[in-house]
Amino acid sequence: MAQKASEQLVDVLIDWHVKHVYGLPGDSIDTTVDALRKQQDQIGFVQVRHEEVASLAAAAEAKLTGKLGVCLSIGGPGAIHMLNGLYDAKMDHVPVLALLGQVDTQFLNEEYFQEVNTPQLFADVAVYNKLISATDNLAEIVDEAIRTAYEKHGVAVLTIPDNLPEQRVSDHYISSASSFQLTSPQIDDNRLNTAAKLIRDSKKPLALIGLGAKKAGSQVAAFLEQNHIPFISTLPAKGIIGDSHPNSLGNVGKLGTKPAYEAMQNTDLLLMFGTNYPYTAYLPKPGTAKSIQINTSASAIGKRYPADVGLVADIKDVIKQLNSSETTILHPDDGFLKACQENVANWNRWMTGKRELDSKPVAPEALFNDINETAPLNTIYSIDVGTATSWSARFLNVSPTQKFILSSYLGTMGCALPGAIAAKINYPDRPVISVNGDGAFAMVMQDFITAVKYKLPLINIVLNNSKLAFIEYEQQAAGQLNYQIDLQDMDYAKFADAAGGVGITAKTSEEFKNALNRAYRVQNMPVLINAYVSDDAPLPGKIVGQEAKGYMKFGSQYLKEEKKYLNYHH
């Protein structure tokens, strides 16, 4: 019996082991939704309250699992809502498939109700972008879209007029899922030998670990230990080796540590493992250090820092060959490592005092310390953009047995809750903690009820300081006076209760500890901890040139404004 094209589409998704589709049904996508209904025992449809949450959750699933994330919406307004999450997937280089509805073919190009030119709208975000125009090849195009999303580590977008999937197709389509395999580029032996020589000759080698090292964490760690090389993690790569590793210097950049910044300024050889780190002001000055860069993407080699040796290859393969080609350790001198470790010890002594702050409202440093001390070793963290990012970068110690996701390159506020939903759906037996600023959480808070609906025991922590705190510091660093950063306070705990979850308010460190302990014990429903936190500035480990000038300008303008105010009132 001939299948509907929509049913064939769903068969292809099943072949590719798609387990979840995030979205909302609606008229221009309902034929595809009906086909998903028929296969609901194999693919779960996760109904969200806003399409942006669907695409952010699909992107988060791809980040967490390495597998394809799938989201779905009607055409027009629903599709437009999805752009933000799809850009997050694009910029963090993860495979996502977006299925978008469209008006029936007989109404196309007539400015029909909700007709939007989605192929044009999504042209910049997609590595594969097609308007379906016939029924017979729909399954083949879906198959090709998924293959391309995997091959190019990006977003595939299919716009599907709703009358086409309803039609029947006679031919049975066999997808390419079972035969698909990504291959690693071959390693150039001459470049490998040059890289080995650079490591042997260096006095102060330093590694920068990126997300590209995700599947080689233990191998990279062993190589760095063996060769006495300190390392810095980019924020997306946090936990790949482990923040408590003795060779770790923490993160670098605005959210980083002073030891990491100083090591960057003193190194004579930078090894870049799977990273396209964008903040070049925090890298060594070109010419002061040589560089070995390993990446599966040729376009990343030399993009941020001049590469003396570029290896377009799998990191595991490179390390294996470096180890097998040498009879002795490449870099036996541990002098630079020990100097860096002493620097880290001094930094940690300062950090310990911060972690022990006992204040009202709660000190963010102490709040994150409480999370550190209580979170199980298999916890998944979903972190929002803003001061939640800053404090987690510096005060959250993530281990290789945990997972840590955020919107690293797009930096979109509102990513933590969708990420937590995706995490709990994919890893139901693991604890999930999301940390959100009050400004960020307010952008997606309606989908807390999605976690209620699916009985997901998440812990959502809202850092409530009634302001856009990170923007406060950005304005100051730019030398501007603060404007329009204050937020109207809201009782987020009451909101959580009203949604059917558990809401807890914490205004002191002791109350937060009690709230967290209670939250770990809650089953079958999400918890929201409304944590009132002090407005502490998460200053960079090192304030660089332009920032220093900006803070000075802000200070002088602030004093002028205060003087005017005092003169006026006297």
UniProtKB/TrEMBL annotation:
Pfam families assigned to the protein according to its UniProt record, in alphabetical order: TPP_enzyme_C, TPP_enzyme_M, TPP_enzyme_N
Keyword annotations of the record: Oxidoreductase, Pyruvate, Thiamine pyrophosphate
GO terms of molecular function: magnesium ion binding; pyruvate oxidase activity; thiamine pyrophosphate binding
Domain Thiamine pyrophosphate enzyme central, first and last residues per copy: 192-322
Domain of life: Bacteria
InterPro entries: DHS-like_NAD/FAD-binding_dom, POXB-like, THDP-binding, Thiamin_PyroP_enz_cen_dom, Thiamin_PyroP_enz_TPP-bd_dom, TPP-bd_CS, TPP_enzyme_TPP-bd, TPP_POXB-like
Enzymatic class: oxidoreductase
PROSITE patterns: TPP_ENZYMES
E.C. code: 1.2.3.3
Domain Thiamine pyrophosphate enzyme TPP-binding: 384-530
Thiamine pyrophosphate enzyme N-terminal TPP-binding domain mapped to chain residues: 4-118
Family that this chain belongs to: Belongs to the TPP enzyme family.
UniProt-recorded name of the protein: Putative pyruvate oxidase
Species assigned in the record: Lentilactobacillus hilgardii (strain ATCC 8290 / DSM 20176 / CCUG 30140 / JCM 1155 / KCTC 3500 / NBRC 15886 / NCIMB 8040 / NRRL B-1843 / 9)
Organism lineage: Bacteria, Bacillati, Bacillota, Bacilli, Lactobacillales
